[in-house]
Amino acid sequence: MHKNEETNFNVMFTSKLDHSLAPYWLWAGLRILFTVWPQSGYIHPDEFFQSVEVIAGDVFDIEVARPWEFNTTFPLRSIALPYLTAGIPLILIKILSPFLLLWFNWNLKTSYVLLITPRLVTCMLSFVSDYCLYKICKVYGQNYRTRLITFATSYVVLVYGTRTFSNTIEMTFTSLLLYFVADCMAHSDQVIQQEEFLSDKYKEADTPVERVKLYKIRSSLPSHSLSRCFALASITVLGTFNRPTFIAFAFPPIFFWLQRGLGSKIISLHDFHLRMLLFILSGVPTAVFLIMIDSFYYGYLTMGEIAMMKLGPDNLVVTPVNFIKYNMNSSNLAHHGLHPRYVHFLVNIPLLYNVLGVVGITAFLRIIYRGICKRWSDLPRVQSIVGLMTLSFLIPIGLLSLFPHQEARFLIPVTVPLVFLYAQRIRHIPSTECRQEQGKTNFFFVKGSQGSFLLSLWYFFNILMFGFFGFLHQGGVYNLANHFSEELTIKPRLTTIHLVTSHIYSMPLFLLQLRNSKRPLFSKQTGQRYRLARSFYSYEMGSDSLENVHHKLVSILKSCEESQTEKKLDYRLFVAVPASLLENFDKTVVNFNSSFSYSVSKVFYPHVSTEALPTLSFEDECHLENMNVRFCKAKQIYLAPLQYFSKLAHQFGLALLEMHKLAL
Q1: Do the Cβ atoms of 221 and 251 come closer than 8 Å?
Q2: Over the Cα atoms of the chain, what is R_g?
Q3: Residue 395: its pLDDT value, please?
Q4: Chain-centroid distance, C-alpha 379
Q5: Which residues make Cβ contacts (< 8 Å) with residue 453, sequence separation at least 6?
Q6: What gap in Å lies between CA 623 and CA 613, rounded to an integer?
């Protein structure tokens, strides 16, 4: 092949690659793969305890740790959305499991299946955001390839997008709202432009025949004022019952839907008010339906009360109202942690989106600067797609910043607006993207691709954060639960297991599939009520000192010894601590001259607890060894790198220790 031909071939190949969606499909496949091959990382307890833990307890009648948000006295969480996303797949497992076990000897009720099935549903829902981003780009003639690849390579999508957070569902609803509103805006702009043109022609017409013809053409134009009204209202209500913070994310797109065409000759404030009224009325059926479901679930309402039409504030529960009441009290938020008001903008946005977040914050500062300088023409147009996306990025963050409790996951619904606006800044694409419409060029974006450096940083930080939150962060907790689910199936019948956890997140109990010992049962033979005996006890010590953990172990050990003496019940006592605390735990046991010893039962890798990070420096052991100090120092110099990295690596684990009573 000649040099010129080879150059032409390379140019053609590169051009095809630049316009191919193959990288996007690769990352989309990895999203599914890392859902089926489960990420062991554990971001926050809410990914289990605000959805799957509660629903699994209801569906399988197993013992779970039901969180306070789902109490019957003042419920803060609607049960409808968790049942749709987690309940339906778990019910299918419950129905299919006996048949598959009988016919093929396949046990579906394993900790692995219970973990990944709800995650798969959430993963599939995350692709709704991909589709909405693609459709918005198509409607406005934008480069969808750049945005889809940027979206798919974000660790927010790869990790948060596959976890059973209510925030992930919130992202899906936000994406749907943005797509429907963007489509309505484009459709309204087109119809209004045609209607204004025909109206002007009608006034200029000289003959009645020509006027009749123009009138008929104008009458045949499609309606647009109330497009998708019911769908938008229903999504807004569903999103609000899922998380009332959705109001902050829904406000910009709904406002843009209401004010479409204002300022034109066709649309007036009367249309704005009519849209608002019909939007509110369209949301009523969905709101009533969800209120009835929650009222039934929490025991406020019965079928008899409905038949007798006894409906009122006393037997109806509106969970979003309870949620807002609770969070308006800053003393309540103090139990969950208070943060400065700037944490969302200066910490959480860069943490979630790294260079893309920094670009977004920089663009926000530029908007403020142009506003101060009164350069109004340089600001995003109010009725443009850029105006919609800009406000959908800034307003929710601003509103959520008013509340002092600020977690990074609260912001993941702004992913689609952020990617749409600034993805081109970190990739090699033309310096401007424009759309030819009716012979007029509309420039939507600020000039400039920042080159391969920003793109390299984007991939580096996203891969790093994917590894940390996807596998390292609290990564041993799932393996710990999986281990005890197997231990409980093989343990002797009259043996109880006690587990004390320290410096790790709460272990989801639904993975253990414990028999429900809280529900009262009735014996037909004796006519008395009874409860099943518990076989597993867990004690969470949080970030308490190891001294307190030691005191707890002594107390449990004493109680277990008494039960063994009086009731002939055997026991096994375990403690789970990050491997980085093993040396300190050993020192604590020695210092207190404990009445028990321990052995390392198992270490689960990988695991990192930010509450007990691995130490980078180790104590000099030469003075502890019974050998010549000079020889010891020489040995350390020779083996130092290997020993150092070995000790460091062993700290990235979760150690399971079994306690043994010392013989007197």
Answers
A1: no
A2: 30
A3: 95
A4: 32
A5: none
A6: 26
Cβ contact 47:478 at 8 Å:
no
Q: What is the DSSP string of 37-59?
A: TT------THHHHTTHHHHHHHH
The alpha helices in 37-165, defined as continuous H runs, are 46-49, 52-60, 80-82, 88-103, 111-139, 144-152, 155-158
Per-residue DSSP letter, 358: H
Residue 221 neighbours by CB distance under 10 Å: 13
Q: Which residues of the chain have pLDDT under 50?
A: 1, 3, 5-17, 431-450, 624-627
Tokens of 132: 């909405």
Strands, sheet with 596-604, edge to edge from the N-terminal-most edge strand: 536-540, 495-501, 570-578, 654-661, 596-604
Task: Find out whether 662 and 596 touch, Cβ atoms under 8 Å.
Answer: yes
CB distance 236 to 246 below 8 Å = yes
Alpha helices in 511-628 (DSSP H): 546-567, 582-591
Contact 648, 608 (CB under 8 A): no
Q: pLDDT at position 253, please?
A: 96
Task: Determine the Cα–Cα distance for residues 413 and 245; give it in Å rounded to an integer.
Answer: 11
Instruction: Please confirm whether the linkage preceding 606 is cis (ω < 30° from 0).
Output: yes
Distance from chain centroid for Cα 457: 23
- How far apart CA 97 and CA 95 sit, in angstroms, is 6
β pairing state of 596-604 and 521-522: unpaired
The SS3 of residue 337 is coil
Half-sphere exposure of 358 (CA within 13 A, CB side): 9
> Which DSSP string corresponds to 304-315?
HHHHTT--SGGG
Residue (of 175, 179, 174, 181) closest to 248 by Cα position: 174
d(CA 523, CA 516): 16
Alpha helix segments (H runs only) across 427-473: 452-467
Alpha-carbon distance of 495 to 503, in angstroms, equals 27
Give me the pLDDT at residue 310, please: 74
Q: Per the structure block, which two tokens stand in for 229?
A: 């009204």
Reference 465, options 160, 212, 207, 251; nearest CA is 160
Taking the C-alpha atoms of residue 640 and residue 31, their distance in angstroms, rounded to an integer, is 40
What pLDDT does 440 receive?
A: 40
CB-CB contact of 578 with 503 (8 Å): yes
Among positive and negative, which fits the CA dihedral 239, 241, 242, 247? positive
Q: Are 653 and 607 in contact (CB under 8 A)?
A: yes
Q: Which residues contact 337 (CB under 8 A, 6 or more apart)?
A: 405
Q: Rounded to an integer, what distance in angstroms lies between the CA atom of residue 167 and that of residue 327? A: 17
Cα separation, 443 vs 464, in Å, equals 35
What amino acid occupies position 572? R
- Classify residue 517 by its DSSP letter: S
Read off the amino acid at residue 624: L
Q: Quick one: pLDDT at residue 332?
A: 80
User: Which residue has 């045949």 as its token pair?
Assistant: 220
Hunting for tokens 């829902």 — which residue is that? 125
